[in-house]
Every structure is written in C-alpha cells, then in structure tokens.
Design a protein that fits this description.
Radius of gyration: 26 Å
Shape: globular
Structural class: mainly alpha
Order of helices and strands: HHHHHHEEEEHHHHHHHHHHHHH
Number of strands: 4
Helix content: 55-70%
Number of helices: 19
Strand content: under 5%
Length: 449
C-alpha cells in the first residue's frame, strides 16, 4: 500500500491537480452542477407517472385523476431533459468566461460568453450534405431523396438538444469563449464612446467576435460536410467507446479505484475524476435510460450504492465509531460526523479519523466501494433491482436515494442497505485494530498523567 501511495504522490497527483485547476475543468465542474436541478425536476414528474406501478393500489385512482393530465405535466420532463445540452452549454460558456475574467483579469462579459456558446452549439445542430456538389440541408430533402445521414435520419436532429449533445455542446462552448477571448485580447471589437448605455456597448463589443465565430463554425460545418459527416457524428464514435467502457464492470472498477486512491492521499478524487470527467457520461446515460435504455452506470448510481456516507462508503465506519469504538477519540468523532455522513458528506471522517495516509483504514476505504459496486452492478445487470431512471440530489440518505433514483423500486432500497451492511463488515476488522491502538494510547496517556 505504501508503494502504491508513494507512486501516486510522486507521479500522478501533481499532474491531476494541475488538470483539476485548469480553467476549462473548473468551468465544466460548475456547469455540471447547473444541470442537476433540471434532471431532478424531470425525475419528479417521471416518478409521479410511475406511482401506480410502484403502489398498485393507486392505479385506479391515478387513472381516473392524475394520469388524465400526464400530457401536461410530462412537458416538464420532456423539456428539462430534452434541452439539457443547452443548459450545459450556457453554463459552460458562462463559467469559462468568468474564469478568464476573474483569473486573467480580461475585460470580457460572462453573459456574452454564455450567449456565444449557445449560438455556436446551435450551428452544429443542423445537418448539411453535399449532393452533386450542392450543399443541402438534410431536412430539405424530399421523401424521394430521403436518406440517413451518418446514422441520423431526417428530422431527428432535435434529439441533439438532449443528453446526446452534451459533449458537442462543451466543445462548442470552448470554441466560442476562446474566440471571444482572442478578439478581446487582440482588440478586435467595436468600442463605443463614453456615455453609451452598458447594454448597448456590450452588444457592439460582441459584434465582431460573433462574426468571427460564425465564419469559424461555418468553416467547420463545410469541411465536415464535404467528407460526409458532421461534428456530432464524429464525436459519437469515441464517446460511444467511452460510454461502453464506463458501462462495463471493469471500467467502473477502474474509475472507483482511481477515486479512492486519490482520496487516500488527501486529494478530492470525487471532484477530479467523477465530477469532471464521469458526470457528463452519467447524465447522458440517465437521459437515455428515461427513454428506455438499460445503462447500469447512470445518474447517481455512485451515491446510491457505492459511496454510502461519502467516498469510501464511510457511513458504516461512522456507525462503528459511535456504537462499537472504545476509543474516546473515535466516539467523539463519530457523533460529530454522523449527521453529515447521513447526507454523504464525509470530510470529517476522512480527515478526522484520519483515513488519509492511515495504514489501518486505507485498505477497507478502498475495498468497501469496490465490493459495493460489484454487488450493485450485478444486482442491476440481472434485473434484481431496477435501472436508474431518475435524477436525485447527491445528498440523498442511504436507501432513499436508491428508491427514488430507480423510480420507486423497494428492492433498490434493500440493496442500498445491504451495501451499507457489506461496508460495515469490511471495515470492522481494520476498525478494531485501529480502535485498540487508540484505546491503548489513551490509557497510556492516563497512566502517564
């Protein structure tokens, strides 16, 4: 274990910290948080619609009353998820511009950056194909010439506003903000005289960057159309590979292992690995599950089953501190940390026990979520629990988050509790050794005094 930790500290942590502190990564982390309310709102109405399946006794009542209005309230579900890429793009453009504004002290406007990001993304939505040397919009093709353009049928471009478009949206936002930033730095703007209202001045300042962005995006669209593709089709292949990797058991194991190893040396592994790189994939998988797909690793699967009480599944360890520990130090820590732990906040445990660099607790800290992911993955794969179809707050308590995340599956609630019990069993022998060590030290201190 020491060899592994020393290797991480020497060769990996510095690089990961540098990546995590880049402007783009910080912007993406904030953008991901912006999208969360929309997934939760969409899930609320999806759960309402599924209540008759959750509680069969409600079926007759719901069919006669609430379900009569499902066409209305499901608009919220459809538009919240069907437009999720736009929210992601707007937030990425805003926060990335804000990074350059606050860190580099560049005089650029965050709202303008957000609008330009949306504009760039919207330009990628339409599909262009060259037929006999003539550029034609796919939606303009007649039924006689109806084709499937790189696997996307005529008119289905609207799905690109959903989770499928998130990664293209991120790239579009980055391009838009970089062009905006370049134009401001190089003074490629129209300056209005003093006394002109701020809103008018901002709009003229953004005019030339908008023109430059337009020609850049048109050039990209034209080049890709000439070779018979577009940016969405290009990114679909590598993204499909990454999604398959994160959807496999061994892929998830690698992700969880990296997160835990980083935490073990005091680095916020969840923020660096999950919040930055994995959450967009989980969001796409969630939106596809809502449309009938069967992704196991989707939505908040991690906090539902793996990180019960926070990274390392430490809620069980906190319970051991309170109810089993003989050490006064651990008992006091457990009582202080139990409330945050119930809501998946465990920094008090990680740094208070501590778990960081602690040879007694690092091993179960890594093993517990790996055991939980094994149990949860195969329980979902074999249909013992439902797939994740609802967005939930990551602070949802154990069992409740799993119940809501699966649209009201009681088996998911039971599975989450089983994961909690499994983590307690894994922590117990290591906890006992550590507790005995601290108890002996406390007794020696008493004797010495």
């Amino acid at each position: 274990m020491n060899v592994i930790l020393n290797f991480l500290e020497k060769h990996l942590l510095g690089k990961l910290n540098r990546i995590a502190n880049t402007k783009i990564i910080r912007a993406l982390m904030n953008a991901g948080l912006t999208a969360v309310p929309f997934t939760i709102v969409a899930s609320i109405f999806l759960i309402i619609n599924n209540l008759p399946q959750i509680i069969p006794g409600l079926k007759t009542f719901f069919e006669a009353t609430i379900l009569q209005y499902s066409a209305i309230y499901l608009i919220a579900n459809t538009m919240a998820l069907g437009s999720i890429a736009i929210f992601y793009v707007a937030a990425t453009g805003y926060y990335l511009t804000q990074e350059y504004q606050t860190v580099d002290k560049i005089n650029i406007d965050s709202f303008t950056g957000s609008i330009l990001a949306i504009y760039a993304f919207l330009m990628t939505i339409v599909q262009v194909v060259f037929i006999d040397g003539k550029a034609t919009l796919v939606s303009d093709l007649t039924s006689e010439k109806s084709i499937v353009f790189n696997g996307v049928s005529m008119g289905s471009w609207i799905t690109r506003f959903s989770g499928q478009g998130i990664f293209v949206g991120i790239i579009s936002a980055i391009i838009a903000v970089q062009i905006y930033r370049f134009c401001i730095i190089k003074n490629i703007t129209i300056h209005m005289p003093a006394g002109v209202p701020a809103g008018v001045s901002r709009s003229f300042t953004a005019l030339l960057p908008t023109i430059v962005l337009t020609f850049v995006m048109l050039a990209i669209i034209t080049i890709l159309a000439w070779v018979g593709t577009d940016i969405h089709s290009i990114l679909a292949k590598p993204f499909g590979f990454v999604q398959e990797l994160t959807g496999s058991y061994f892929g998830i194991i690698i992700i969880v292992l990296l997160i835990q190893l980083l935490w073990a040396v005091g680095v916020h592994g969840t923020a660096i690995i999950k919040n930055t790189f994995i959450n967009p994939i989980l969001l796409v998988a969630l939106t596809e599950n809502m449309d009938g797909a069967n992704h196991i690793f989707a939505g908040d699967f991690v906090n539902m089953y793996l990180f019960i009480g926070g990274a390392g599944s430490t809620l069980g360890l906190c319970a051991l501190f309170i109810f089993v520990a003989k050490s006064k130090q651990l008992k006091i820590l457990g009582k202080a940390a139990i409330i945050p732990s119930l809501f998946n906040i465990n920094e008090p445990i990680i740094f208070g026990a501590p778990i960081v660099y602690n040879p007694y607790l690092i091993i179960p800290f890594i093993l517990a979520p790996l055991a939980n992911v094994t149990l949860a993955y195969f329980a979902t794969k074999f249909g013992l629990v439902g797939k994740v179809i609802s967005g939930i707050p990551w602070v949802s308590p154990v069992g409740l988050g799993a119940f809501l995340g699966t649209g009201g599956d009681f088996n998911a609630l039971i599975l989450a509790l089983l994961c909690l019990c499994l983590s307690i069993l894994i922590y117990f022998p290591f906890f006992k050794m550590y507790d005995n060590k601290l108890t002996n030290e406390e007794q020696e201190d008493i004797v010495a005094k």
